[in-house]
TrEMBL record:
Protein biosynthesis recorded as keyword: no
Organism: Crypturellus soui
Any Pfam family the entry gives: RGS
PANTHER family named in the record: REGULATOR OF G PROTEIN SIGNALING, REGULATOR OF G-PROTEIN SIGNALING 5
Protein name from the UniProt record: RGS5 protein
InterPro entries: RGS, RGS_sf, RGS_subdom1/3, RGS_subdomain_2
Keywords: Signal transduction inhibitor
Length: 130
């Protein structure tokens, strides 16, 4: 469990929150409680994807991420604009470590602007900083 001081830093930095194992778990739980966990799941899938070294595994993961989060009517479709979706699809012709970067940045920004402030106001977060 983080110290109240550590947890306080998350208010101003989604990056710090996501780098902390407890912070990531707490934020994920919070988003699940709001039925909006697809964004954090997509972000985590992208992080895992970027750590993949094998081109074969990378292609498999890229296909899975696309089918789960990007394509129309995907089971956990994330909210990205048409331009970002088009760029991402173009990048997937030859998957590389940066194929999902633009989409991941958009989702990060969305979580930072929208989900983080709600998390910070939540009872759960308020308990952490006491």
């Amino acid at each position: 469990r983080p110290s109240p001081e550590e947890a306080l830093q998350w208010r101003d930095s989604l990056e710090k929150l996501l780098q902390n194992t407890y912070g990531l778990a707490s934020f994920s739980s919070f988003l699940r409680s709001e039925f909006s966990e697809e964004n954090i799941e997509f972000w985590e899938a992208c992080e895992d994807y970027k750590r993949t070294k094998s081109p074969v595994k990378m292609a498999e993961k890229a296909k899975k991420i696309y089918e789960e989060f990007i394509q129309m009517e995907a089971p956990k479709e994330v909210n990205i604009d048409h331009f970002t979706k088009a760029v991402t699809m173009k990048n997937l012709v030859e998957p590389s470590a940066t194929s999902f970067d633009m989409a991941q940045k958009r989702i990060f920004a969305l979580m930072e602007k929208d989900s983080l402030p709600r998390f910070v106001r939540s009872e759960f977060y308020q308990e952490l900083i006491k």
